[in-house]
Specification:
Elements lengths: L5 E6 L1 H22 L3 E7 L3 H9 L5 E10 L10 E5 L9 E9 L3 H11 L5 E9 L12 E5 L5 E2 L15 E4 L15
Helix pairs in contact: 1-2
The structure holds inosinic acid (IMP) and magnesium ion.
The site of inosinic acid has 20 residues, from strand 5, helix 3 and strand 8.
Length: 190
């Protein structure tokens, strides 16, 4: 039985693991070929569960750090705005950065964070997102390694939240009453 409020299990636990293993293989191949000192940077909080599984499926020496940002994508501010709540603990200059996000929706968060990290002159910057909602995209962002496209439904679990809840669900579920991503779009990110 799914958790209260979840109307449908979109991606069951086993399928999540298949997706993550496949991403891990792809990422491993890429860095074995291209080399570099790999620092995997997770966007908090949403990515932490995915990140924990992902790094264990990468067979290449790596380090881990996190970045927490707040998005203000109020309808009146069409471009959105991202402020850093917690910065990466070290310099990324000269390192191979893999930025990890739970879900790319409009793309504004990813776009802003990519621009911010590029200014710090990493040797390379690649991106990885577990989920993507292509029908909601407003800005084009590169996702070098990605798990799965999903329809325009509000999803929770496997690190993703609604009002900070549901992150502990082992599957990706659709939250019935919420519909599209809109309720989370005002002055919140994670
Ligand atoms: P973007 O800037 O519109 O791409 O927003 C991305 C962020 O919005 C993600 O990192 C999530 O924190 C949040 N988000 C977007 N869609 C969902 C969803 O369906 N469930 C949970 N969080 C979501
Ligand atoms: Mg997020």
């Amino acid at each position: 039985m799914p958790e209260k409020g979840i109307t449908k299990i979109l991606i069951p636990e086993q399928e999540i693991q298949t997706i993550v293993k496949s991403l891990g293989r792809e990422i491993t191949r890429h860095y074995r070929k291209n080399g570099g000192e790999l620092l995997v940077v997770g966007l908090l909080k949403g990515s932490f569960v995915f990140m924990a599984d992902l790094i264990r499926s990468i067979e290449y020496p790596l380090m881990v750090d996190f970045l927490a940002v707040s998005s203000y994508t109020d309808a009146t501010v069409s471009s959105g705005e991202v402020t850093i709540k917690m910065d990466i603990g070290e310099s990324i200059q000269g390192k191979s950065i893999l930025l990890v996000e739970d879900i790319v929706d409009t793309g504004y968060t990813f776009q802003k964070v990519i621009r911010l990290l590029e200014k710090r002159q990493p040797a390379s910057l690649k991106t990885c997102a577990f989920l993507s909602k292509p029908s909601r995209r407003e800005v084009d962002v590169p996702i070098d390694f990605f798990g799965r496209d999903i329809p325009d439904e509000f999803v929770c679990g496997y690190g993703l939240d609604y009002a900070q809840k549901y992150r502990n669900l082992p599957y990706i579920g659709v939250l019935g009453a919420v519909g599209s991503g809109k309720p989370l779009r005002v002055a919140t990110h994670e």
